[in-house]
Amino acid sequence: MFPILxxxxxxxxxxxxxxxxxxxKEVGLMRGxxxxxxxxxxxxxxxxxxxxxxGKTEMQFVExxxxxxxxxxxxFLGVDGLSVSLVFLTALLGFLACAxxxxxxxxxxxxxxxxxxxxxxxxxxxxxxxxxxFYIFWELVLIPMYFLIGIxxxxxxxxxxxxxxxxxLAGSVLMLVAIITVYFSxxxxxxxxxxxxxxxxxLDFPLQIxxxxxxxAAFAIKVPIFPFHTWLPDAHVEAPTPISVILAGVLLxxxxxxxxxxxxxxxxxxxxxxxxxxxxxxLLNVLYGAxxxxxxxxxxxxxxxxxxxxxxxxxxxLAAMNATGFNGALLxxxxxxxxxxxxxxxxxxxxxxxxxxxxxQFGGLSGPMPVYAFYLTFCSLASLGLPGLNGFVGExxxxxxxFASYRILTAISALGLIITAGYFLYMLQRVLxxxxxxxxxxxxxxxxxxxxxxxxxxxxxxxxGFFPIVILQFQETxxxxxxxxxx
Amino acid sequence: MVNVAHLIPLFPFLAFxxxxxxxKTLHRASAWISIIASLISMVLSISTAQGFLAGAxxxxxxxxxxxxxxxxxxxxIVDPLTVMMLLVVTVVATLIMIYSVGYMGGDPHFSRYxxxxxxxxxxxxxxVLADNLLMLYIFWEGVGLCSYLLIAFWFERPAAxxxxxxxxxxxxxxxxxxxxxxxxLFAATGSLSFTDLSKxxxxxxxxxxxxxxxxxxxxxxxxxxxxxxxxxxxxEGPTAVxxxxxxxxxxxxxxxxxxxxxxxxxxxxxxxxxxxxxxxxSALMAASIASVNNDIKKVLAYSTIxxxxxxxxxxxxxxxxxxxxxxxxxxxxxxxxxxxAGSIIHGVHTQDIRLMGGLFYRMxxxxxxxxxxxxxxxxxxxxxxxxSKDEILAQAFGPHPVLFITAxxxxxxxAFYMARLMLLVLFGKSRSELQTHESPVTMRFPLVxxxxxxxxxxxxxxxxxxxxxxxxxxxxVPYPSEEAPSKFVMGLSxxxxxxxxxxxxxxxxxxxxxxxxxxxxxxxWLYRLLMNKYYIDEIYEAVFVQPFLRLCRLSFRFDMAAIDxxxxxxxxxxxxxxxxxxxxxxxxxxNYLLIQTIGVLIVIMTLLGKLCFQF
Amino acid sequence: MIPxxxxxxxxxxxxxxxxxGVLTRRNVIGILISIELILNAANLNLVLxxxxxxxxDGLGQIFAxxxxxxxxxxxxxxxxxxxxxxxxxxSIFTDKFNLLKx
Lengths: 487, 615, 102
Known about the structure:
The complex is a heterotrimer of chains A (487), B (615) and C (102).
Chain A: H1 4-21, H2 27-51, E1 60-68, E2 73-79, H3 81-99, H4 108-127, H5 131-152, H6 157-185, H7 196-200, H8 205-222, H9 231-238, H10 241-266, H11 268-294, H12 299-320, H13 323-354, H14 370-383, H15 390-405, H16 407-413, H17 415-431, H18 448-466, H19 469-486
Antiparallel strand pairs in A: 1-2
Helix pairs in contact in A: 1-2, 1-4, 2-3, 2-4, 3-4, 3-10, 3-13, 3-19, 4-5, 5-6, 6-8, 6-9, 8-10, 8-11, 9-10, 9-12, 10-12, 10-13, 11-12, 11-16, 11-17, 12-13, 12-15, 12-17, 13-14, 13-15, 13-18, 13-19, 14-17, 15-16, 15-18
Chain B: H1 10-26, H2 29-53, E1 59-67, E2 70-76, H3 80-103, H4 110-129, H5 133-151, H6 158-189, H7 204-221, H8 230-233, H9 239-248, H10 252-260, H11 262-266, H12 269-290, H13 296-316, H14 320-348, H15 364-378, H16 384-396, H17 401-426, H18 441-456, H19 468-474, H20 487-510, H21 515-522, H22 524-531, H23 536-581, H24 589-614
Antiparallel strand pairs in B: 1-2
Chain C: H1 4-24, H2 28-52, H3 59-89
């Protein structure tokens, strides 16, 4: 059988090696190699989605072989309904962000090597089913990201990169402790993420709580959950455009995915115990993120805080502990990746022209940039949850799910919908409407390549908005399986 | 019999995409694409109506998604209410699009305008065809979006952009309530389908709360008190937009929603009461503001709020067909009035009625149709407004004396301010050096057609035609039978209408020199209160908007100072600890060597000591 | 024959002098010379104990020779570094160098 998952994971690594061997001057060739390898990953991921059998709960495309037999470490890859859409999301954003990497103007060689290393890390995290492997990939994401922000970032890049790295590492270290504990709790010792749940769910309740919290630390920082979110605006603002896309589109999903793959199935009792607390955190994320986003004058920071707010809906769906909520959370993860990816691309395009992100300095861009205005309006509407576009479906299902569990709390967090509309429309008003603020000749409209990077995302927004079943069909069975395990 | 109802919104939707994607190349032709698309929709609507009369009904389309293990099937509802709305929407939309060809003639964003208009038509048609609340909500937001886009159509104007924002946000407040209502209804009954509403049984309080939350959506969309503030500002958009969206169709969607969920409301008298009271407040409040305003479009906007309030009142007192009937007639005559206003603005390039006057003689078609519209809304028999308003009055008469008086007072004020508007704009002497010209034929044609409807649409529900409209609406619908208007109510209604018109005539034509000024001086505080719209905008600004924005800024500062402060504080703590510890690392090799040597000496000493101890 | 402890004392004096030099000299060349003293102290001990235990293969003396050779190589590397440092900083005093200190 063709080891499609290994190819997905290690193809970018191969691309990185090729780039490594190229001479420094061949920038075009390096871009070409990176683009081809990420395109190949995208095609492979499409192939994966097409070959995915939807009615099955168990892992598919499984690749398993002993790796370090002395410690019972396995090379164990596989996807199920929880991860398949995220694999596709990673591949898609990886390709588009790579296509948008034209704004990287120095040290391209290192950039493309690190970028593809990052791809390997992210892909690996989503498909690894062995804790040892998972942790390696999880940490592998960090290192390229640190350099990508720290070298190609904005003026405060060192601070942002350091903060991102240390903050996330602090969480991962706790996770490592938990992984080791889990490893030793099983006889024979095992890193198998799937089978360990039979062991961990029978552990003492206090130990479960402790382990859940240790994992929670890692995931909460990645999601990010209030109050562990402050690395996010800094990292987003300083990171170059394609890295912001990856950061918001994929990295944040790692945390939420962790809850689905590890936090909940491994520690069902703790999950039940903490579900209400999670819901409250979700509420805080939604409202607090939206309020802070409302107060922003920096375009990118606004989008960054909007991510905090949107991930709150994921948490609400997660805390709902029912099928609708889980489906909503998973869908919202996918949707948020698509929408925020597009939003960061749009911010980057504007920044390339204006060299500022200060919302108060724009105005009336509908005039000189009608195509840009169309895309920006479109993505903002998707983000604020307009029915007919994808953002709505995820938010709707998450809220509906959590409404079934927590009435009042959900009603309060629905206020987030209003505030979200508020800050997005306020942003549109400041950027697109009103009299033209400065030299309009500076604002040339989008070029063909830029339109080409945005169009796939907008098409997905429409398709998922109208036919959410396209994504939901993948996760439905897995969600059912997870719920059956939880109850 | 082929079911074509679900195709009705499709054509305008396609027209939207054609116009938005090919706008630059199409330019002028885009108007005709939109018009033809809505004409096709109109034909399909008529055929749906025929099909309905021949016995066809609702039908499902497919499952959209699964919701708590229950598939949410989307389908098309075909019943009297929908048929009526389909016809009204397609007719009015087509006419207004034809009108827009002339009205928007020179606009650089011509094709974008028609794209949005088509999108709106598609969403509105989808809204009335939706057979469950979720599907309705989807299109509900769709029309809201189009309203936003069209209000802010002239994006260079800051006021337009602000008005769009305000409209979207204010309605979104209501919409969020609607969404929660949908959740609650589903939690209570396990179904979102309109056809299941009549058999809805669940916990009493949940159904009641659901009904009230659904009503909050209607309040936002139909610009009812306390969420009415967006509609007057929405007049920043092109006038044809105001005619279509903010007079005839979208704002009526709230009334439609209440009518659609009428069984739910009817099952709980308290809910109906709330609907009626909110409608009454809105009706009276808006009518009183309209009586003093000097902006031709704002007067019409407040008039719309007031009339919608009247419809809500009608529904609230149990008049299912009365409210719906008024919705239909209002769609025609208010669209007519807005289009006339547009024609006048097109001619004189101002909206201030104090600068107009005597236009009747220079804009014949516009003038005549404006008069027809005014008389229709003022409730002069036998024009359409009379019949539908009468139904509402009749329904309120008897069991609801307060509401009846409110409605009567609203009728009086309506007649007064509309007559005032008409007299100031069309008659008397010209009060400024305005150049005017009659509008092109594409604009006049819709006026004539609409005035035809304004004249005769009401007859459908009149006793002369044995209340055909009401019977049609009640067809297959198990609603309580309604009061037919008695002679007394009719007389009263005619009386207040004529009184209002007469009063306006005497103030603004007969005693124009001193009466308006005199009254203004006499009731200075009242005048100021009304001119400032009861200060509601200011109150909202001070009570909600500014404190909220302050909260946002505060939470951002909190984020930077407190939360990020803790993070950076921990980092600094570690760094400072390192700063203390690093003194040990002086960086001089000799220091290290010294320590090393001392260490080795100590080791040797201890070893020697041990040796000595042993021997 | 000279008593063993005489030679041991000489070696100890040499060693202490070397240590003292390493610890107190600021001049890098002085430090290098002191290190040579320490090595010579060790060499002296090696040769001494080779004779003292009366070994026949002379391994201790060979070892001393090795040390002499390697110490020479080491001094060469050290002196190269000293020259490099001198070229950079125009000084060979250890307290002038704090590049690696933060």
